[in-house]
Amino acid sequence: MSINWLRFVSPSLKKPSLFHLCHLPPPPSSSSSAVIVAMSYDKELAAAKKAASLAARLCQKVQKALLQSDVQSKNDKSPVTVADYGSQALVSFVLQQEFPDNFSLVAEEDSKDLRKDGGQEIVERITKLVNDSLTSDGSYNVTLSTEGVLKAIDNGRSEGGSQGRHWVLDPIDGTKGFLRGDQYAIALALLEGGKVVLGVLACPNLPLTSLSDAGQHSPNNKVGCLFFAVVGGGTYMQPLDGSSAVKVQVSAVENPEEASFFESYEAAHSMHDLSSLIAQKLGVKAPPVRIDSQAKYGALSRGDGAIYLRLPHKGYREKIWDHAAGCIVVTEAGGVVTDAAGQPLDFSKGKYLDLDTGIIVTNQKLMPLLFNAVRKSIQEKASSL
To answer: Which Pfam family name is an example for this entry (predicted)?
Structure first.
């Protein structure tokens, strides 16, 4: 089996270039060349960055309080619950304010559990956090009621699909990382006609320098990255404090022996044994870097590693909010994202991704080698069962 690469000619490039992204256009007719028309998403990008940054500050506040308490020893999940719902309420509110006439949000949470008996205290904590965040920002002169917050959360009940415009949100991707004090992300993307056209990843605990330099914890507390990408416009990273952004590119490594790869921190989220077999076939010498959330996509987009393997256990169905923002952040930085059969990710079918085995991510030079190693490893694993 081989990957069918689609080639297009960009007016800004002298040679054809690989275009195997989250947002594949329809193939051109034989009588015309493929032309990529860059649309302006300035307003959408500004709103997405604002919403994700506000949500990140709310989550940072909750995580700081969590880590300063003994709540973890009590196995109390309420802090991540408060941060998760608060993040979704904030993002939903900001986007609806900015786009009141054309607003659809596909998100992970709804208010059903919060409306049950005993949920009032958590709802009040969420409401206070959301209003404090809005007040500190100063852009919106409003105080939300508890019902207003619950309604904002429930705005995320869209099913998405191939028609129209839909925002896609994971309010806290990496809840276990959040509880440990490690990596998590606020992941927000925009779909147009089922294609990802914009993505923002707010990664509050990701060091501003490469993970290979700082590890997961920066010694000088210089953490907090915002990655953002618009179709055709490249990928940028800036500190969460809003200072200047820099354009980023995926690793240019061509020799797999020199590559490092990311995988999920939790063994329950990905088949580490299969990843290890793939790495062995490639000759990768470095041990895997295991971190939570779509922060992996952000780190990969700036070249911290060269490969990301997401190989969930059989029966698991990937959700679009777990990959939409990360996918465009990597592809606009020059990377390639496919399933294990070499097919691009299809975000047009509602809340779920229909995939072959898992997701593989790397640069264009390494992808053929990685793809072959993945297919051989999957076949070997299947034949040994």
So the answer is: Inositol_P
Residues 6+ apart with CB under 8 A from 384: none
Average pLDDT over residues 336-353: 97
263 φ, ψ (degrees, to nearest 5): -150, 170
Structure tokens that stand for 215 in this block: 């590890």
Give me the residues paired with residue 308 across strands.
262, 361
Phi (first) and psi of residue 44, to 5 degrees: -65, -40
According to the 3-state scheme, what is the secondary structure of 32-83?
CCCCCCCCCCHHHHHHHHHHHHHHHHHHHHHHHHHHCCCHHHHCCCHHHHHH
What's the number of CA atoms in the CB half-sphere (13 Å) around residue 146?
A: 10
* pLDDT tens-place string over residues 255-284: 999 999 998 887 665 678 899 999 999 999
Q: Could you tell me the sign of the dihedral formed by the alpha carbons of 305, 325, 218, 63, in that order?
A: negative
Coil, strand or helix: which one is 14? Answer: coil
What is the distance between the alpha carbons of residues 303 and 322, in angstroms, rounded to a whole number?
21
Whole-angstrom distance, CA of residue 201 vs CA of residue 237 = 9
Distance of CA 362 to the CA centre of its chain: 15
Instruction: For residue 374, give every residue at least 6 positions away whose Cβ sits within 8 Å of its Cβ, in sequence order, or none.
Output: 278, 309, 340, 357, 360
- The catalytic residues are 84, 175
How far apart, in whole angstroms, are the C-alpha atoms of residue 320 and residue 333?
20
